[in-house]
Specification:
- The complex is a heterodimer of chains A (543) and B (545).
- Chain A is of the alpha/beta class.
- Helix content of chain A is 64%, strand content 9%.
- In chain A, the strands form two sheets. In chain A, strands 1, 2, 3, 4 and 6 form a five-stranded mixed beta sheet that branches. A five-stranded parallel beta sheet of chain A has the order 7-8-9-5-10.
- Chain B has two domains: 316 residues, Up-down Bundle (ABC transporter transmembrane region fold), CATH 1.20.1560; 205 residues, P-loop containing nucleotide triphosphate hydrolases (Rossmann fold).
- Helices cover 63% and strands 10% of the residues of chain B.
- Chain B has 18 helices and eight strands.
- In chain B, helix 7 runs antiparallel to helix 9 and helix 7 runs parallel beside helix 10.
- Classes of the chains: A alpha/beta (543), B alpha/beta (545).
- Chain A: This is ABC transporter ATP-binding protein.
- Chain A: Keywords: ATP-binding, Membrane, Nucleotide-binding, Transmembrane, Transmembrane helix.
- Chain A: It comes from Idiomarina aquatica.
- Chain A: One of its GO terms (cellular component) is plasma membrane.
Chain lengths: 543, 545
């Protein structure tokens, strides 16, 4: 837990380093804005003082009025500049976060990890959740100290008692933060549990909406959903009662401070109090400290509001930061050093450590150029892992030499082929481009001639998301076609005939044999006896 | 535009009905908080000025007033937040129910095309976005409007021109915010579209990353992803830019208003129409108003996203108001035959089922056979009326609706995260324990389940993880049998079962329910089950080409 939290914090800090400059500018503008506000309020107070106490006319105060106009508009303008810096910071930080995620995926694959669609979704919500941290929290965490300090200095110079009054609520600032933080943390923890319970009911009903309808069980399900929602409301509300208290305390202090300042200044001016500079108060200083009091608490309020941005960002960072480093390879496979002509791969003392800490040791072996080499063994024996080692997607210990043909790339035949929502042509041409004639000939070769005939739009026919509209066997034969059309000399296939109908399995089997006959090296991991029977070379893997 | 938006928001706002009083209370408290804030600052200013300049005045009531405003603001703010969050939570619960109701009113064929995992995510995201409707759009807008008008009323006691200024300020800020909201409308649609595209590409890429890296094309996909992400960032940035610009305009305008008020009240003072303390009080109330005004653009910048969420939820769950479900009553014991006449079904532009005719009599076991992926399930769904027929017809004899007379075992053994009893009887029909045990015994599940400490009240866990695939299959089958319909359409009922067990079950079931019409979809036929001893019916063989 603590290591995850630590790496999440480190992740956020690293990202924060990339936006140091815009954040610094935003901080400067924030500070300038506070200064401008102080000056604006001072002008208002001195206008009042000159008018009411000294009884000077409006015309003689024109210069003050002009300065007031200048500073009033400057206040809005500086806000615009500050926001521009924050936008830049946010954009830069999320760009970095995205790039880091892409590199992380690459490293994970190199390290032998597997990714799923859920990893892809990390590019969406988690990155979104980071944004508040950079656009609000980061600069506010500095301003929450600097801006009140500036105001405090002004107040002290005007009247020490008011300064002390505000300062007294000053040490409460860390207390505020702790309170707000604790409240937010408790809120997010409890909230997470309750959200989970609620979404379990809701998701469960949604997932089974067809069954519900089929069994006329809609009303019963509605009742469940309503009850779960009601329970969630009650539970959440009881946590909110506590969580909102912390911000209520903040509100309370800021209200009481304003009231306290007003009463102190008022009674001081009336002459009821005469200690510690109360007798030196004027309308100018009294009015100014009153006006400054809300500004003293404003950064705190904003900080409290942005505190949940931090919680959200830490939550997202735990998902986005780098997971534990996988054990690295002894080295990259040596290319062609001492590999006899006619061999594509040779390995000695090869072993792999899986994520669970299990070690798979392979017997020494080699794969000849050309021919159909089958890697067989029962499930869990490490067939697929060996393929991944050959694909350089798995770190290993030992000695592995591979042919120079590898550098031109591998034609890889996946069990769940990558298909996009696009035309049949685009899907076949996904990794390498081929002419329509070649594709049509190829389709016949993999036994999909009928498919082309049944599609009125031919190669331009649109496939659905993830190949919807095609059966599993047809999808896999599209992937096979990519390998057939490719010029690459090495074809690697993972369980190409598993979970298929007999017709598709047979076509795939034939095609792989034909490919091998053209002189390509075809390597398949399989336990299909029909395919094994037609292999030119079988490597038995035993766990 | 307003009318079109209203159409998307109305179904959600309609749910406010039951919480009207809490909503009113929340609004009043929010308003009170705002007014107490204005009051605190204005009264304090009045008091200080009076203290500095006036010789004799009642000092105790302003003092008490200041203390009252300070405490009351804190309290009303706290209660306001609680009340309004309560309303939102209650609304959300209602929205969920309403959403679910709409979803259930959809034709099954449409539900079938939903990808459930995505759908769930999308629903949750959009429901969260809808929260803003009340807390960030409606409430701040109303509070700002009412507070501004009350301020205008207050100011009008001193000078009608001041009231005009207040109303002008209110209108201007509202105008800026509404224009911002209108711009984010179109922007949000683009943002959502780009985000969905990015999500799809990112998920596809990670799912197939092994293949992409093996083919050495991963760098291209990385670049493409980054480009899509940049497009999204640009749109997000643009939304923020618009919001910040609007904020800037509002601030400038608020400052301008303050300066005008300042000029006006000082002139009034010089003409002797206003007292000095009143001048300060009016000025400070203008200051406090500024704070309210500058909050609005930040809140209303989210309008587009909220509207888009409302729209998406409606599109997802169906635009139509749900109709009351027609009660599907049926006469349990009767015999029904299922007749298929020259049935053709198209799927994705291809003829998947071509010219199938059959007369399926009661009391017999009929089979639909063929390799996997060949269209068996498509035919079953066509029989259920979930898919349109390209041509031909499906009918019952005696004539009746398929909806109420066919029990359908779907290919997936869907399980609810609930008790066994709830899973076996989702519609909560009146069944005695004996009914359950009788069916469970037929399916050889009785000893397993009676050995569980809670028996029928055992929780099956998410997706029924308590049970193996074969057990789940039989539980799903038990659910269909307990529904007691005359025609049973079973899609791969024996998946995950050993063949001797499958044979045994089939023989026992047909014997126990001799009047039913059995239609079994399976990639294996009776010969692979070692020819079970049941009345043999028709065999429909599907071929691919």
């Amino acid at each position: 837990m603590s290591t995850v939290a630590a790496s999440a914090h480190a992740y956020l800090q690293q990202l924060a380093r990339t936006v140091k400059r815009p954040i610094m500018w935003a901080f400067c503008f924030g500070l300038i804005k506070t200064a401008v506000i102080v000056i604006q309020l001072a002008i208002v107070a001195s206008l009042a003082h000159e008018l009411f106490v000294h009884g000077r006319g409006l015309v003689s105060l024109l210069h003050l009025f002009i300065w007031l106009v200048v500073f009033s508009f400057a206040r809005a303008g500086i806000g615009l500049l500050q926001n521009a810096c924050l936008r830049l910071a946010t954009q830069t930080a999320s760009h970095h976060a995205r790039t880091r995620l892409l590199t992380r995926w690459r490293r994970q694959i190199d390290g032998g990890a597997q990714l799923s669609a859920a990893d892809g979704a990390l590019q969406l919500e988690p990155i979104e959740s980071l944004k508040g941290y950079f656009s609000r929290y980061l600069v506010q965490q500095y301003l929450v100290f600097a801006s009140p300090l500036l105001i405090l200095i002004v107040c002290f110079s005007l009247n020490p008692v008011v300064g002390v009054l505000l300062l007294l609520s000053g040490p409460i600032i860390p207390l505020f933060m702790a309170l707000v933080g604790m409240g937010a943390e408790r809120l997010s923890q409890k909230h997470a549990e309750q959200t989970f319970a609620l979404s379990r009911t809701f998701t469960d009903k949604l997932r089974n909406v067809i069954t519900l309808k089929l069994f006329n069980a809609g009303d019963a399900a509605l009742q469940d959903v309503a009850e779960a929602g009601e329970g969630y409301r009650k539970a959440t509300l009881s946590t909110l009662k506590v969580a909102f208290l912390s911000s209520a305390v903040l509100e309370f202090f800021s209200s009481v401070a304003i009231a306290g300042v007003a009463l102190y200044v008022g009674f001081g001016l009336l002459g009821y109090i005469d200690w510690l500079g109360a007798d030196e108060l004027t309308l100018f200083s009294g009015l100014l400290v009153l006006l400054l009091a809300p500004e003293y608490f404003a950064p705190l309020r904003q900080f409290a509001q942005s505190y949940h941005d931090r919680a959200a960002a830490i939550g997202a960072a735990t998902l986005l930061c780098d997971p534990q480093q996988a054990p690295g390879s002894d080295g990259q496979p040596a290319v062609n050093t001492g590999l006899p002509e006619g061999l594509s791969f040779r390995w000695q003392n090869l072993s792999v450590i899986l994520a669970e800490g299990k070690r798979i040791t392979y017997g020494d072996g080699e794969i000849a150029k050309g021919g159909l080499c089958a890697i067989s063994g029962h499930s869990g024996s490490g067939k697929t892992t060996l393929l991944r080692v050959l694909l350089k997607q798995m770190p290993y210990q030992g000695n592995l030499i591979c042919t120079t043909e590898m550098s031109r790339g591998v034609a890889y035949f996946a069990q769940q082929p990558f298909l996009i929502a696009g035309s049949l042509r685009d899907n076949i041409n996904l990794f390498e481009r081929h002419s329509d004639d070649t594709i049509i000939a190829g389709l016949r070769q993999v036994g999909l001639g009928y498919l082309l005939r049944s599609l009125p739009e031919g190669l331009a026919a649109k496939l659905g998301e993830k190949g919807r509209g095609l059966s599993g066997g047809e999808q896999r034969r599209i992937a096979l076609l990519r390998c057939v059309l490719s010029e690459r000399r090495i074809v690697i296939a993972d369980e190409p005939t598993e979970n298929l109908d007999d017709v598709s399995a047979e076509v795939i089997c034939d095609c792989l044999v034909d490919l091998a006959a053209t002189g390509k090296t075809v390597i398949v991991a399989t336990h299909d006896p029909k395919l094994l029977a037609r292999a030119t070379h079988v490597i038995e893997v035993t766990a | 535009m307003i009318r079109r938006d209203w159409r998307f928001l109305r179904p959600w706002l309609k749910q406010v009905k039951g919480t009207r009083w809490s909503l009113l209370l929340g609004l009043l408290l929010a308003l009170a908080t705002a007014l107490f804030g204005i009051g605190l600052l204005s009264l304090s200013g009045w008091f200080i000025t009076a203290a500095a300049l006036y010789v004799a005045f009642d000092i105790y009531s302003p003092g008490a007033g200041i203390r009252f405003f300070a405490i009351a603001r804190t309290v009303s703010r706290y209660v306001e937040r609680l009340v309004n969050h309560d309303v939102v939570l209650a609304l959300q619960a209602r929205w969920r129910v309403a959403l679910f109701k709409r979803l259930q009113a959809q034709p099954l064929g449409r539900l079938l095309r939903l990808r459930v995992a995505d759908a769930v995510q999308q629903l949750t995201r959009n429901l969260d976005a809808l929260d803003n409707l009340l807390l960030r759009l409606l409430l701040p807008g109303l509070v700002f409007t009412i507070a501004s008008l009350l301020l205008a009323l207050f100011w009008s006691f001193y000078n009608p021109v001041l009231a005009v200024l207040a109303i002008g300020g209110w209108l201007a800020v509202l105008l800026f915010s509404v224009r911002l909201a209108a711009t984010t409308r179109t922007l949000a649609v683009q943002q959502l579209r780009v985000a969905e595209r990015l999500r799809r590409s990112a998920m596809n890429t990670t799912e197939s990353i092994t293949e992409l890296m093996a083919w050495n094309v991963y760098p291209d996909y990385e670049q493409a992803l980054l480009q899509q992400a940049d497009r999204q960032e640009r749109l997000d940035n643009r939304q923020l830019l618009l919001q910040h610009r609007c904020l800037y305009k509002v601030e400038i305008f608020a400052q301008l208003l303050f300066l005008l008020v300042l000029g006006l009240v000082i002139t009034e003072f010089e003409q002797g129409q206003l007292m000095s303390a009143e001048v300060i009080m009016l000025l400070l109330s203008a200051f406090a108003w500024q704070e309210l005004a500058t909050e609005l653009p930040t809140q209303w910048g989210g309008y587009g996203k909220t509207l888009a969420a409302a729209k998406r939820l409606l599109r997802f769950a169906g635009q139509n108001e749900p109709e009351p479900a027609t009660d599907a009553a049926h006469s349990g014991g009767n015999k029904f035959a299922l007749i298929l006449e020259q049935v053709r079904v198209m799927q994705a532009g291809r003829m998947v089922v071509d010219n199938v005719s059959a007369h399926l009599q009661a009391g017999k076991v009929h089979w639909i056979q063929g390799a996997s992926g060949i269209g068996k399930t498509t035919l079953a769904e066509a029989i259920m009326g979930w898919r349109p027929l390209h041509s031909g017809s499906v009918s019952l004899r005696p004539a009746a609706s398929t909806d109420a007379h066919v029990g359908y075992l779907t290919q997936q053994s869907e399980m609810f995260d609930d008790t066994l009893r709830a899973n076996l009887n989702p519609s909560r029909q009146r069944l005695s324990d004996q009914d359950y045990w009788q069916v469970l015994k037929l399916l050889e599940l009785d000893s397993l389940i009676s050995s569980l400490p809670l028996a029928l009240d055992t929780l099956v866990g998410s997706r029924g993880v308590m049970f193996s695939g074969g057990q789940r299959r039989r539980l799903a089958l038990a659910r269909v049998l307990l529904q007691n319909r005359p025609i049973l359409l079973l899609d791969e009922p024996f998946a995950g079962l050993e063949r001797p067990l499958a044979k045994r079950l089939l023989e026992r079931l047909v014997k126990a329910y001799p009047d039913k019409t059995w239609l079994i979809i399976s990639h294996i036929g009776p010969q692979q089950l070692n020819s079970p001893n049941v009345p043999d019916g028709e065999r429909i063989q599907l071929a691919s080409y």
